[in-house]
Design brief:
Helix content: 25-40%
Mean pLDDT: 95
Strand content: 35-45%
Number of helices: 3
Order of helices and strands: EHHEEEEEEH
Number of strands: 7
Distance between the termini: 30 Å
Strand order of the largest sheet: 1-7-6-5-4-3-2
Low-confidence stretches: none
Structural class: alpha+beta
């Protein structure tokens, strides 16, 4: 386990197959991601582009695609450092759990010996809020079939 990993999960009262159908669909993030302006497919199941509300543009490259179980990807600027992301669906007696784990890259702008403090007090709380908003958006969309509004669960200083 990466000591800088940040994870968040949510329990959904939905069939895992239905959840998979949504999260694996083309342009999926446009349905439930509150900080997504645009999610353009470059090569389905391989690569897409995520444009955040503030214009920040990341490329997502999928390294594992496990139907009904989840996927893994790297995300970052086209020619920049990449973070690793894992989406995991776990079947429960009633519904499922969706867990997103982020393994963030370490910025070279932060000295190595300061990074653990920066991670604890800035990176982890910001990423937890981000993941909670994405997962809450997924639940909202699954429960209502209504696309999530921009910043529906509050603004985020990195992405809004």
């Amino acid at each position: 386990m990466n000591r800088f990993e940040v994870s968040n999960e949510i329990i959904l009262n939905h069939n895992p197959d239905v959840v998979w159908e949504i999260i694996s669909s083309k342009n999926a993030l446009e349905l439930f991601h509150p900080y997504c302006l645009k999610n353009d497919v470059i090569v389905y199941k391989k690569k897409d582009k995520l444009i955040y509300l503030n214009g920040l543009t990341y490329i997502r490259e999928f390294s594992a695609w496990k139907p009904n179980n989840g996927f893994e990807l790297s995300i970052g600027k086209k020619r920049g450092k990449k973070s690793k992301i894992k989406w995991k669906i776990k079947t429960l007696d009633i519904g499922c759990e969706v867990k997103i784990s982020v393994y963030p890259y370490r910025s070279s702008k932060i000295p190595k010996y300061f990074y653990p403090l920066v991670n604890i007090f800035i990176v982890k709380p910001k990423l937890r809020k981000y993941l909670q908003s994405v997962l809450t958006g997924l639940k909202f969309y699954l429960d209502t079939s209504i696309k999530v509004k921009k910043n529906q669960f509050g603004k985020h200083s990195w992405f809004s």
